[in-house]
Amino acid sequence: MTFQTEFEFSLPRGYIDANGVIHRDGKMRLSTALDEIESINDPRVQANDAYLPIVLLSRVVTQLGGLSPISAHVIESLYVSDFTLLEDIYLRINSQEPVMLGATCPHCSKAFQLQVAPLGAE
């Protein structure tokens, strides 16, 4: 049995770099305790708690298109839909419990909760 530590994803919009290249496909690894601790102690997070997901995602997203490593600037430049997807993936791969996600029906626009299994769960 192998233990999966890295997960592929594809962003709906993608990061557009300075040359106009769109980067959509990437990889995210499992978070470590050190990722959490160093992210919480980052001066940007100390100044603004809302910056925590940006710092944390910049540590665990290992590749985005042809970009590697991924800087906080790349994460903070993502469109909200892409950023939200990465947050959801982070929760799913780092949790052993099912995760509840907010969703909206594309037909009637009614909001509902969707329970999803952790990624990599057997």
Give the structure's gist in a few sentences.
The protein is of the alpha+beta class and 122 residues long. It is 34% helix and 29% strand.
What is the topology?
Layout: E1 6-16, E2 22-29, H1 33-40, H2 43-47, H3 52-60, E3 61-64, H4 72-76, H5 80-93, E4 99-104, E5 111-116
Helix pairs in contact: 1-3
What would you note in describing this structure?
By secondary structure, the protein is α+β, with helices and mostly antiparallel strands. Helices cover 34% and strands 29% of the residues. It has one domain (6-96). The protein has helices at residues 33-40, 43-47, 52-60, 72-76, 80-93, and strands spanning 6-16, 22-29, 61-64, 99-104, 111-116. A hairpin with a 6-residue loop joins β4 and β5 (111-116). The longest helix is centred in the last third of the chain and has 14 residues, at 80-93.
Task: List the main descriptive attributes of the protein structure presented here.
two-stranded antiparallel ribbon; alpha+beta; 122 residues; 5 strands; 5 helices; 29% strand
Return Rg in Å. 15 Å
Number of helices: 5
Ends: how far apart? 11 Å
- Note the beta-strand portion: 25-35%
Strand order of the largest sheet: 1-2-3
Provide the number of structural domains.
Answer: 1
Class derived from helix and strand content: alpha+beta
Shape: globular
- Strand count, sense and closure of the main sheet? 3 strands, antiparallel
Number of DSSP strands? Answer: 5
